[in-house]
Amino acid sequence: MQNGLDKLLGLIRGSKEISPGFYWIGFILIGLVYIAGAGLIRLMDVDASQYASISMEMFQDGHFLQVFHRGQDYLDKPPFLFWSAIFFYKILGVGEFSYRLSSLLFIFLGAYSTFRLSDRIFGRETALLASLFMLSNQATFLMGHDVRTDTILTGAVIFSIWQIYEFNHRKRFGNLLLASLGIAISMMEKGPIGLVVPILTFFPAWFVEKDWRFFFRWQWLALIILVAIFLVPMSVGLYQQFDLQPEKIVNGRSGVSGLKFFFWEQSFGRITGENVWKDDSTPLFFTHTFLWAFLPWMILAIGGFIDWIIGWIKTFRGEGSPKNNFIFFGFVLTFIAFSLSQFKLPHYINVILPLSAIFAADFAIRVSIRGSGSWHGFFIGQQVVNFLLLVVCLAVSILFFPLTNPLLWLAFILLLFASGILLTGKQSKLMRLVGPSLMIILAANLILNTHFYPELLKFQPGSMAANFINSESLPKRKIRKLEILDHEDYHMHSLDFYIKTQVPYINPEQINKESTKELIFFVDGVGKDFLEESLGDIVILKEFDQFNVTQLNFQFLLPSSRESQLGKRYLIKGS
């Protein structure tokens, strides 16, 4: 154990501009915020609760190679997230923390990979700062509790990039094997993007740098073969479930190939138009998304990116060539590929945040060493970001959902006090640049994870109904949802997950007083009106407020106008 502690101390030693104590405290506080989010926040509808519910169904039914959801064939996401959740379900039981645990471990793997890669390229100071940026940006904090496929994907991709870099410079087969495992996990998490990102990271950089010793290596064929071997379990399941049964109707189509869907249509089909998912987002969607996703470090990342561009401009004057281009190519080319997609969601760019953490950290150190006007400009920019974050924190804690817990207020104030201390001129320029921002983003996510999200999810009727059903010991197998023609009523997977039972639908034609007198219905207002008309007397066991918590608006956040934004859900029993 002492050897392990000495190794940890060794990783943090070597920092010159920032004291090792700051990193220790920073990493510990970050870990506590992640644990609070994983343990205190209920799973959100729709995605996180759906994936947790699918994992639960696979765990209960024992069909691990073929994926079903509510008894129907499921063809959307690859199975690794479900497999990893099942592993911890077996150890800890079905629950929100056990569902999130594997993803948390991959976040920390991603931070460690970011550290090791940065250490090899730039040195210990940049490595420590890059891993800190990787763990403390807003998108990663969000990934820690709103767990979707991108969480594991992000950690696995930067791990594979690190291993490829190590293989190129040390020529160890173990690094090639680990790189192929990381790519395979990425592909079993979200399809070909897990292979595309490493390709876009390295090959264009080697090409422009004319580094042919890396470009042409027979070992890349071995890597592809190893990846294919690791993908065999998933591929066998897909082939058996879909390709061998073309008569199945999947997502409204017959003759669907599961292999083609995952290896082409789900990813590349979004660019070619073959994928059915489309939206009206513009190519600039991820430009403004990055500004909040990489809070509070996006100004430093933009500075690092512009600095790289300037370096390339100087090459045309014969003033040298930028180094470590693979980090920027991986970021830029993946960013462009996502921007060309015909269907975009904010969390898609999370996979390249570790790369932005690396060049943001390197730039922060270089601009601090330079000092003078450039440092002051970025220092002022960081304080503007800090002020805006503080305003949001106070709005959440005082205006939107008033905070009454004195311990949380004390922790919040202590973090603000620490931010003020780190802002003083007695600290190094690098500490003054990044220290206050770390304290503010920690304060923000402390409030979000321990107060805001738990309060917000009181308006998620699926999980609230599950609480009531469990506390009142209602018969879970008797609960039904209505499937009313021409009425879209999206399923709340959190209800299934928290009562650990897949709630079936019932057809309106099946409803009469005799056949449904023992049933309990979970319905919205349209369903309630139908039951009143069909059954006459009904008993409302519980009424719940409803709001789509992943689509916030200002009217909902303001207590004075919140009621106007709410729908209703009911647990109803026939009398």
Termini gap? 64 Å
Q: DSSP helix count?
A: 27
Helix content: 55-70%
Unreliable spans: none
Strand content of the residues, in percent?
5-15%
The largest β sheet comes out as:
5 strands, mixed
Overall shape = globular
- Alpha-beta classification: mainly alpha
Explain this structure.
- The chain has 575 residues and is mainly alpha-helical.
- It has two domains: 41-367, no CATH class; 463-574, D-Maltodextrin-Binding Protein, domain 2 (3-Layer(aba) Sandwich).
- Helices cover 65% and strands 5% of the residues.
- The protein is built from 27 helices and seven strands.
- The strands form two sheets. The protein has a five-stranded mixed beta sheet, with helices on both faces. Strands 1-2 form a two-stranded antiparallel ribbon.
- Strand 1 and strand 2 form a beta hairpin.
- The longest helix is centred in the last third of the chain and has 29 residues, at 372-400.
- The relative contact order is 0.10.
List the helices and strands and how they pair.
Layout: H1 2-12, H2 20-40, H3 47-61, E1 68-69, E2 72-73, H4 80-92, H5 96-121, H6 124-136, H7 138-143, H8 149-170, H9 173-190, H10 193-208, H11 212-215, H12 219-230, H13 232-243, H14 258-265, H15 269-272, H16 285-293, H17 298-315, H18 325-339, H19 353-370, H20 372-400, H21 406-422, H22 429-456, H23 461-471, E3 479-482, H24 493-499, E4 505-506, H25 513-516, E5 520-523, H26 525-535, E6 538-546, H27 554-557, E7 567-574
Parallel strand pairs: 3-4, 3-5
Antiparallel strand pairs: 1-2, 5-7, 6-7
Helix pairs in contact: 2-6, 2-22, 3-4, 3-24, 4-5, 5-6, 5-8, 5-19, 6-19, 8-9, 8-10, 9-10, 9-12, 10-18, 17-19, 18-19, 19-22, 20-22, 21-22, 23-24
